[in-house]
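Can anyone check this?
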Amino acid sequence: MKIIITGSLGNISKPLAKALIKEGHQITVIASSSERKSEIENLGAQAAIGSVNDVVFLTQTFKGADAVYCMIPRANYFDPNLDLDAFTRTIGNNYAEAISKSGVKRVVFLSSIGAHLEQGSGIIQRYNEIEAVLNRLSDVSITFMRPTSFYYNLLAYIPMIKNQGIIAANYGADQLIPWVSPNDIAEAIAEELTTPLDGKKLRYVASEEVTGDQTAKILGDVIGNSDLKWKLISDEETLNGLIAVGMQPKIAQGLVEMYAALYSGLLGEDYYRNRPAVLGKTKLADYAKEFASIFNQN
């Protein structure tokens, strides 16, 4: 198959590209920086250098493809001038237009847990909107991948662990957190891209469900702090902490709302109704080794 991958060589896109190349597919990876070109080609893929903000570029790149994987690039939450809603909405609309104009018939879109919510989901609310836009595309078969909480988000707590000896947040603690590895997401996406589909489909991906307290214990053991605790704090405390480290206040508010929805169960209600029959291979104890390596570098 001829498959287009967005997301350059990111946490999901790189293992996805490698898996599909190994299966013998013809892969093109879209990247915004020409510096990635040689690395992409060294994997055995073609590089398409351009921006997902350029609908003409996307349309031309998508033409003739058997399948396309679309994702929203990560944004800089510390940029005071970033309009995250507009950033996300624009790219989602660009994908819809490029899919329609290029004639591609099989798409996998990286959405999110909580995308079923029209409100109350904080910074991921736009995914509900993008799913609706893509759902309106006729004669296009789309899988909406809804991963849970990414393991690597735990890296943001390294300074707090080092300075305060705790993980403090307005979620977790005694409540379950469904964590997921990018490698498990990539494996699921590869399966969807190469499997025929007629219509639209939702697929959740998770690797392990553990409480915040269990998460802290697993991480603490590998970094030599067996007493590491996960402390539940208020929404206000969480917001003030994010703003104090330089995060844009509006985005910080959106993160706090998302975390609160996770703790209350609102964010995960549809996940638990449609949870995957089999969880991913990469458990938190596996990821913890990578976490410890990064923790000890800083």
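Reply from J.R.: I decoded it. The chain has a mean pLDDT of 97.
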